[in-house]
Amino acid sequence: MNLLRTFIIAAFASSVIAVSAQEHLKSLAPSGFDADTPVSKDFYRHVNKGWMESHPLTPEYASYGQYKILSDSGNNRVRRIVTNLAKTNPEKGTTAYKIAALYESAMDSTRRNQLGAAPIREALSKIENTTPDGMDDLFIWFHKYYGSPFVKAGHMANVADSREYAMYVNGGAIRLGDRDYYLNNDKRSKDVREAYKKLIAAQIINAGYSKKDAARIVKNVMNIETLLADSTWTREESRNIPAMYNIRSISQVKEMFPNIPWDRIFNEAMGIDTPEMLIVTTINTVKQGDNLLGRLTDREMKDYYIWSLVDEASNCLSDSFSDANFEFNKVMSGVQEQAPRWKRALGAVEGVLGEGIGELYVAEYFPQSSKDYVEGLVENLRNALGKHIIHLSWMSDDTKLQALKKLNATTVKIGYPDKWKDYSDLDIDPAFSYWENMHNAEMWSRGEYLAKWGKPVDRTEWDMTPQTINAYANALNNEIVFPAGILQAPFYDPEASDAENYGGIGVVIGHELTHGFDDQGRQFDSQGNMVNWWTDEDAAEFKKLTEGLVDQYSAVEVLPGLYANGRYTLGENIADQGGLRIAMTAFLDSQKKKGVDVKSEEAKIDGFDPMQVFYLNFANVWANNIRDEEIRSLTIGDVHSLAKNRVNVAIRNLDTFFTTFGITDGDDMFRPQSERVVIW
């Protein structure tokens, strides 16, 4: 243990955040607390009832919470940036010019409605007019320009050596996202399938086909996607990373899947030499794609290509296409009104030129002082997690040393990338249709991606734009990333108390740190390689603890007869529980360093103890209203628990929550000590 203590002191020399204690709440509004629902009965409702009543769902939203408020605020900021660019008359070819031109193209509904499906008719004609001896060429053409039906190939960091890229292959995608929608016969699955059939028919007719053609295409598409779904892994199976690491030589792959033209995919569609080794992520789904290529008729394949193309282009064509998509979204999420055109246009432009916009965003909205504060916060949380690891009763010293090594090596990115993306080769032209501009952008992005093959992995790249209201952890880089967009109230406010900031952004930071040690992240070492650094005994103890967490969440009935999926959401639930506990420790340590007694009268903030404020703002961050349809959709397809469960289930594992609010046996929020789960 002395060795461990020496290691942690050397590895995590913490920085003290010099911010004076606040006397008034900034992010919290106690007037909105529910006096009729005590903390001991339902903590989430006690904190958020007033907020929920003052922020009713509008027809545009399937759910609306603090994240959406920040998203709306961010959208308004980005909208001002983008619309102001056009007024500056930017020079043609510059990033500013391309942002303004693409946004104008997206907003020009008159032109888009006049063109209708014209921008994709040439491609549709190519599909229709392909002769039987040209079907192999059509397969390669589609892979090169529009997508990867039946089988997909692409490179990413090698999980065994994350410094280099490896080529991965897997089966074709299913557009409904989850296999259960195709295979189950409950009412929800049937309703979604019927809505999807209506969507396909409507879009095919919008593209200029007859009702008879549309009926045939619907039948063929549903048959193909149902077969693909039947080979797709379950949600729970998809979390098994080692099971997806199936190394095969190219000769083995060709023998296993003889109907797939592997050399042509790599040489012609991707423009690279055929790799000698491949990683087949899901053998059964690739086999299903191979089977389909060997048995489908030309007509069936053409119909599948037609739908794939129409679906991809639909949001870039006339209003009739976007209206059909919206009708389908109403069934999936319960949303009642389509988002305004400017929001949809802005989202598309950010998808193409996000870092270009982000560079302008951080210059205007993200001061260096915010970055400095959060950097200090991160180090305090890193130190807190290190302390937790040292004192874990269920982990051996050998594994603890490896865990501390990984924690110490974790890279932190805050605000924005050190180098910005170069868009000089991207061709955006006002003379082109909106679909042509977006397709050109997709091909540019694809070219940029393919150019990385054979080169070392660039770990400086970001997977989110600076203006994004989110954060993420990347196990292959052993990094955690916090874009500037999320560094706002109620998560972070430079004028707020430490208690509020630690209960907000502090928990977010702790959450992302913990992802490095969740059921998936723990399988990677300090360099981001999939290496087993655990003893068998420690791995067994970890598994036992996680099963307890699975049971806690799976016991929650989110709608009558529908229960949360604690196994599918396990990684996020581990991160929620760990992040909350780590942030609490870091907060208490920070106050101790400042000489603040959190139990004293002087430390109170508008009459609340600082520890109460910490928990209250944590719950406040997850304030949310949501439709039943969206609850069903998220419970099936989202790896995160619903907002209420991210609060009420997680906090009932922390001893300090019970002592802070005086919750005892017999209270609804109480959980017996023997049933509490503490992992990190």
Descriptive report:
- Residues 470-677 form the Peptidase M13 C-terminal domain.
- Residues 41-417 form the Peptidase M13 N-terminal domain.
- Belongs to the peptidase M13 family.
- It holds the Pfam family Peptidase_M13_N.
- By secondary structure, the protein is an alpha+beta fold.
- Among the domains are: 60-116 and 317-365 and 432-457, no CATH class; 117-316, Neutral endopeptidase , domain2 (Neutral endopeptidase, domain 2, Orthogonal Bundle).
- It has 26 helices and 11 strands.
- It has helices spanning 2-11, 43-54, 66-87, 95-107, 109-115, 118-128, 135-145, 180-183, 187-206, 211-231, 250-256, 262-269, 283-295, 298-313, 319-333, 341-365, 368-390, 397-409, 434-450, 498-515, 536-554, 570-593, 610-621, 628-637, 643-648, 655-661; strands at residues 63-65, 151-158, 161-171, 246-249, 277-280, 411-415, 472-474, 479-483, 557-559, 562-563, 624-626.
- A 4-stranded mixed β-sheet has the order 2-3-5-4. A 3-stranded mixed β-sheet has the order 6-8-7, with helices on one face. The protein has a two-stranded antiparallel sheet with strand order 1-11.
- A hairpin with a 4-residue loop joins strand 7 (472-474) and strand 8.
- The protein starts with a helix and ends in a 19-residue tail after the last helix.
